[in-house]
Amino acid sequence: MTNMDDADGSALRARLLGGARRLVVKLGSSLLAPEGRGVRTERLASLAAQVAELHAQDREVVLVSSGAIASGMRLLKLARRPEAVEEKQALAAIGQPDLMRAYAEAFAPHRLFTAQVLLTSDDLLARKRFLNARKGLLALLARGVVPIVNENDMVAVDEIRLGDNDLLSAQVAVLVHADVLVLLTDVDGLHTGRPGADAGARRVDTVVAVTAEIRRMAGQTPGSGVGSGGMQTKVRAADQVTRAGHAVLIARGTDDRLLLRAVAGEPVGTLFLPAGTKMPSRKRWLAFGVKPRGAIVVDAGARVALVTGGKSLLPKGIQRVTGGFGRDEAVSLQGPDGAEFARGLSAYAADEVARIKGRPASEIAKVLGASRGDEVVHRDRLVLLPKEE
After folding, report:
1. Sign of dihedral through CA atoms 90, 96, 99, 101?
2. The whole model's pTM is what?
3. Are 328 and 366 a contacting pair, CB within 8 Å?
């Protein structure tokens, strides 16, 4: 959790948050549409005022927003959120223009333009598309525009699921090299127990690393029943972002000055400290910016060669393959115990890897009819993941 005194914690907040020039701020449905229908314009007005002041401080802000489905429910006068994926897709498509109109109107008094950016995990999978998305977002920020990022629900069929925008915001933070990801919710951070039910429960001020104990706490900290996420998905997002070298703050977004108090170094929410030094951009994308299409399970010898020997992955060390990845797509590399230890780009598709697994590299051409090289995952296209605590 934390092994520093209050003075050290305050100094870290001042340095990490006070020095943050680029922020990614995620707002969930529990803040924007607490009743599940429509967006609260007063909440957007408060947010816009804070972002305008952050701009005046020469800071940049990217917003990751929920609320499209809630807006669609309001327009169609629906009392209950539907369960069917296609119904959620339809509501998101109906509500998205209404949501963006509300944002534009909230920022207009501050003479700030907003821009709609719809993404899915697939958009960040290919390196070229990842870089194109990054360049587009950075161009908006350079012009003083506030990007409003949302999941492209109309096409992201399997992404409309638990915690989608929490995890999308983590990907966006990695995408734009944010100094801090701020996850705004309706609770004031991570707690040691369940607030209200546990008399001894207290807010955790600082998290040095996401450990099993931190994940246990996340299961006890309540989340809203309105949104699709919860404290567990927020901690999962924080784990990804901090291991990529960025800070994360989980805090109560109902505070109309929360963002300004945070960058002023005030003790709000729970601050997750970045782990070690930041990775090079390409490795950061591979480790935390993409969703692996499948997994390659290797034997113990191959794992050691990859982790400590600086070697590439050859077919001989592969035990089994899962998923339906294609050539040059991201895969999770797992040891015999199933624990992920690295990610890489596979030179071969899943069905091809399944055919050559366990064989010498010299047999690749014989089995497949042609060879794309001896390495299934070349060392230059592989990144070892920081160890989870």
Report:
1. negative
2. 0.83
3. no
